Structure formats: structure tokens, C-alpha cells
Amino acid sequence: MPRFWPFRRSSRAAGDAGAPSGAHRRLFGREYAAGVPYALPSDLSEMNRLDFQHYMLRQAFKGIYAAPIGTPATILDVGAGTGRWAKEMAALFPQARIVALDIKVPAESEQSQSGAASTGQGPSAYTFVRGNILEGLPFPDATFDFVHQRLLFFAIPSDRWQFVVNELMRVTRPGGWVEIVEGHYGYEPMGQAAQRIADAMLPAMLRRGIDPRHSANLAQFLQAAGLRDVQTRTVKVPVGDWGGHLGHLALTDVMTFSQAARPLLLAQGMSEPDFARLVETMREECERLRYTWPFYIAYGQRA
Ligand SMILES: C[S@@+](CC[C@H](N)C(=O)[O-])C[C@H]1O[C@@H](n2cnc3c(N)ncnc32)[C@H](O)[C@@H]1O
């Protein structure tokens, strides 16, 4: 067993992340992870959406990573969701040890109370670890060859972004790579319905300290952390049947995502009928205006 397997937490990192895996709060019928400002649900519907979204992104990006990582021996995925990305990396790199970290324990890993769990299914080198990135990563310096984080722009408060990226770099070995993938906050072009939804969601997130528009600043965070050769790529995913199979997948994701955002909007005072009307108008705008959803991919190498 490598030394991070039954990993050692700092006493600080053990605090919030050590909450029982069943700890949650509820809002308008959806379930949320307790103890973190994360603005999206952590329930079964959302887990299904994340898996679906993973397949959509894999098709859009033509792969699941972009950095020139060679053949990494150790890989970390931060905010891993269902662990789908990490398990696919385990299949691509069968000799590698892969750790998936998230505040929410996926159902299949819940048997462990220690916070570290092998799945018992799938690749034997895949391990899930419960942890809260906002309190630091529970791994020693220079542990991993490749550290990946995708879609935490609704989870990281503005004043923690640089800390989080510094942590990603700290646990990366010299010569290893850090890669971050985030979604643009909104679509291009932005129809009136999508704009109204985005405008209504923003204050709910800002109140939690989260500004999802930081997703556009990944290169700055990586550079400020001290990573070198920072590269960025933007992929504009078509949303709507006008964009063929990929557009259809993205539309399904956007519609399901709207349901994940519904509690935030209702909590802001939007009525159920207004919400339903806006979402239907947005579906129509996706086709008529030919929405795209830009995603930002950024990576850099630790010196
Ligand atoms: C939108 S999902 C993305 C999941 C996965 N990266 C993917 O691309 O499918 C965001 C994930 O971040 C996790 N998360 C939110 N706040 C977190 C925190 N403070 N520490 C660790 N994970 C967190 C959530 O539980 C959720 O699984």
C-alpha cells in the first residue's frame, strides 16, 4: 500500500470532511452535502446527471484529459463526483494508482467509515477518499503525477480559489501535471430566458461566497500557483438538436441541470410556474439561437 492509501489527514482536514457520509440538508425536495457552500444537490438524480455529463464531455473534448501526461503512475481527481472519470483513467492506465476525492461518498463506497475506500468493483487500483478541498488535501507534498479537477465552479468560494489551486500543485510531483476543467457561466449567445435564470442564480451563489464566473480565470490561478507551460483551450459545445448527437446530449444535460438549479431559484423567490416557463423558453432558445456552452480546459506542469 502506498502511504496515502489509508491516508493521513491533518487534524484541520479531518474536521468538515469527517462528517458522516449520510450528513445532508434538504431544499425544495433535493438533497445537499452538509458543511460546504456547494450550490448544487448531491442526490441520486444529480449523480445520474454527472455520469451523463461525463459522457457528453468525453465526446465534446474527444478524450478525458488534455495535458501531455505520458504514463502517470499516480493520479488524483478532486471533486470526483461519481468517480466515473477516475475509473476511466484506471482503465486507460491500468498500472496507475488512482484516487478520487469528494465531500460526498458515492453510494458504492459507503461501506467504509474511515473515509478511505476501495470500490470493491472495477479497477483494483481505484480508491475513493472523502475530503473537503476547502480545508486542504489530505496527502503529502509531491504525491501524484497527474492531478485533475473538473466542474467545481459552483463549489469554490472566490477567496478560496487560489488556495485550492495551490493545493493541487502542492500534491503534484515535480514534472507532473495539474489540469482543471470548468464551464462558462452561461451560454453563447445568451437568450433572454437563460439570462434571467443566470441573473437569478448569481445572487444565491454570491451569498455563499461563490462567483462561478471565476471559471474563466483558470490560467491565472495556475500561473499564480507557480505552474509552468500553462496551456488553455476553450471548447464550445453545441446545445440543442441543431448540434447533432452532441448537441442533443448537451441539451439533455442543460435541461437536467436546470432542475438541479431549481431549488436555488425558488429560494430566490421565483415561482414554480415562472421557473417552468423560463426553462421551456430556454429549450426553444437553444434551438432558435443556437446556444453553445463554452468549457475551459487549462493545465500546467510543476517545475
Ligand atoms: C459538478 S460536480 C463535478 C463532479 C466531477 N468532477 C465531474 O466532472 O463529473 C462537483 C463535485 O464537487 C464536489 N464538491 C463540492 N464541494 C466540495 C468540497 N468542498 N470538497 C470536495 N468536493 C466537493 C461535489 O460533491 C460534486 O461531486
Q: Can you describe what's shown?
A:
The protein has 303 residues and is an alpha/beta fold. It has a single domain (11-301), classed as Vaccinia Virus protein VP39 (Rossmann fold, 3-Layer(aba) Sandwich). It is built from 8 helices and 10 strands. The protein has an 8-stranded mixed β-sheet with strand order 5-6-4-3-7-8-10-9. Helix 2 runs antiparallel to helix 7 (244-267) and helix 7 packs antiparallel against helix 8 (272-290). It is globular. The protein starts with 10 loop residues before the first helix and ends with a strand. The site of S-adenosylmethionine has 21 residues, from helix 2.
Across the major sheet, the strand order is 5-6-4-3-7-8-10-9
Relevant CATH superfamily: Vaccinia Virus protein VP39
The biggest sheet amounts to: 8 strands, mixed
Strand content: 15-25%
Structural class: alpha/beta
Mean pLDDT value: 89
- Cα separation of the termini: 27 Å
Output the CATH class name.
Answer: Alpha Beta
> Helicity level, as a percent range?
25-40%
Number of helices: 8
Count of distinct structural domains? 1
> What is the H/E string?
HEEHEHEEEEHEHHEHHE
Please provide the count of β strands. 10
What small molecules does the structure contain?
A: S-adenosylmethionine
